[in-house]
Design brief:
9-stranded mixed beta sheet
Length: 277
C-alpha cells in the first residue's frame, strides 16, 4: 500500500475549475523537478574500478544489472487507464503493473465512477481517484512510477504524474503520447530512434519562456522511409530530472514505443475491463 504524503492535495472532482487550477499551482510549487532518489545507482565496487557512481538506468530493466548491486533491485510501476462506458455510471479503471529487474512482480487495478468529463489540463481530477485506489491495492512499495500522461509538460507544470508523485512523495515520470503544451526546440518528424528534443515552456505554460519542461523522446523508429513513429513526450513528475526521465524511458522501451511498465499496464487495463464487466 502506497501512503499519501500530502492528503491536502487530493484531486477533488467537486472543486470548481478555478479551484482545481489553484491546487495544481500549489502542487507545482511542491514538486521537485530534479533527481532526488536513491535507486539504480552504480555500485561502489564498480565506482572504485573507475566508473563514476550515479544513476544506472540498466538496473531498472536488466535482471543481471539489477543484481550486480548488494541493494535490492528497484521496483518500477507503470500506471495506465481504460474506461467502462457502456453502462451507467460511466467508470474509469486504473491498472498498475509493478516490475523488478524487468520481471513483473505484481498487477492490481481499481475502478471508480467518472465524476467529471475530460478537460485538458485537469486529467488528475478525472482519473486520480482510481489511480489512488489501485495504489492502495499494491503490496509492494514502488521506487519509481511511470504514468501514461504528462508531468511537468503541462499548463501549470502539474500533470497527472506530478500530481500523484507529489501526493505519494515518490519519484515519478510522465509519458504522454501527444504534446499538451510547450514548444519543441527542433523538428520532431521522422527522428531516429534514441533521439531526444527539448520541450521548452512558452506562453501557454506557467513558467518563464525557455524553461526546460522535458523531452520529445524517440523510443522506436521504422527503417522504412514510407512511415514513421511519433515520439513520446517525457517529463519529470516528481523527484526526477528531465534528462534522467528521458534516460529511463529509453532504457525501458526495448523494442517498443512505450516503456515496458506502461506498455504492460496499458495491456492489463484492457484485460481488467473484461474482469470487471
Amino acid at each position: 500500500m502506497t501512503e499519501l504524503s500530502r492528503p491536502d492535495l487530493l484531486p477533488d472532482a467537486s472543486l470548481s475549475t478555478e479551484e482545481m487550477e489553484s491546487l495544481q499551482r500549489e502542487i507545482a510549487r511542491s514538486a521537485v523537478f530534479e533527481d532526488e532518489f536513491d535507486i539504480g545507482s552504480t555500485p561502489a565496487n564498480q565506482a572504485d574500478a573507475g566508473n563514476e557512481p550515479g544513476f544506472d538506468p540498466s538496473s531498472l530493466s536488466n535482471p543481471l544489472a539489477a543484481t550486480a548491486s548488494d541493494a535490492d533491485p528497484p521496483i518500477v510501476a507503470g500506471v495506465d487507464q481504460s474506461f467502462l462506458l457502456e453502462d451507467e455510471p460511466e467508470r474509469a479503471l486504473s491498472a498498475v503493473v509493478a516490475m523488478r529487474g524487468g520481471e513483473v512482480i505484481e498487477r492490481v487495478y481499481a475502478v471508480t465512477p467518472l465524476e467529471i468529463p475530460y478537460i485538458p489540463g485537469l486529467l488528475a481530477f478525472r482519473e486520480g481517484a482510481p489511480i489512488l485506489d489501485a495504489l492502495e491495492e499494491l503490496t509492494v512499495d514502488p521506487d519509481l512510477f511511470l504514468f501514461d500522461g504528462s508531468g511537468r509538460i503541462h499548463f501549470r507544470q502539474a500533470g497527472i504524474a506530478t500530481h500523484i508523485g507529489v501526493l505519494v512523495d515518490a519519484p515519478a515520470i510522465g509519458v504522454a503520447k501527444s504534446l499538451l503544451c510547450g514548444e519543441p526546440a527542433g523538428d520532431l518528424e521522422d527522428l531516429p530512434a534514441g533521439t531526444r528534443v527539448p520541450i521548452e515552456a512558452n506562453s501557454r505554460v506557467d513558467a518563464p519562456d525557455g524553461t526546460l519542461l522535458g523531452y520529445a523522446v524517440q523510443t522506436k523508429q521504422y527503417e522504412s522511409s514510407s512511415r514513421y513513429v511519433n515520439p513520446l513526450y517525457v517529463s519529470p513528475g516528481h523527484r526526477v530530472g528531465p534528462e534522467t526521465a528521458a534516460d529511463i524511458v529509453l532504457e525501458l522501451s526495448s523494442g517498443y514505443k512505450l516503456p515496458e511498465p506502461v506498455r504492460l499496464a496499458d495491456s492489463y487495463a484492457d484485460e481488467a475491463k473484461t474482469l470487471d464487466s
